[in-house]
Amino acid sequence: xxxxxxxxxxxCARWWLTVLQFDKIxxxxxxxxxxxxxxxxxxxxxxxFKPSHSSLEGIISANDLNCAVSKPNALYGAASARLSNxxxxxxxxxxxxxxxxxYNSTETFTLHGLKIKPLDMPVGSVAISLQxxxxxxxxxxxxxxxxxxxxxxxxxxxxxxxxxxxxxxxTKLEMWAEFHFENIKxxxxxxxVDDIDLEIG
Length: 201
What we know:
Layout: H1 7-14, E1 16-20, E2 31-32, E3 41-44, E4 46-49, E5 74-77, E6 80-87, E7 90-96, E8 99-102, E9 109-118, E10 125-133, E11 141-147, E12 155-158, H2 159-163, E13 167-170, E14 172-181, E15 184-186, E16 191-200
Antiparallel strand pairs: 1-16, 2-4, 3-8, 4-5, 5-16, 6-7, 8-14, 9-12, 9-13, 9-16, 10-11, 10-14, 14-15
């Protein structure tokens, strides 16, 4: 018995395209842990959240309900501090950026796009940055965008169009938001992200 496989089927067998959405995750208190593996990925310092949840009224602004592009949920992210051993008995505080990577560490992925914005109404600007890591540490991808003061719509980031490069062969994607106002700088501003467009393989 012979089975004929079309070129399209052959490509689909090698590549898996997906848009990561988080709407089926239960968020009884408005937030929920991202238990790995979620659709094949591990999420660090990123949490499913429902911006319209009643328990978040007065905490999440009505101007930020648009975080959930595919309703009702999105991801909430903010950098967190971690203790590290600085040697000779000293400990250092390191900022750990929110990140995603494949549960199967032997695979890589391509980032095509995502929808992202800072939360709240910063009086200064907020820079949201993306960094894609590859097996060769010297070949990372980086991109950032500044949001001026005030509330914002979600930005539909089309990675190849915005950066001029194809973010392929990634082992990890980091994303973070930094607040700037005059001489003040915070590295852990809150942000939300949804509809992460990926290709595995």
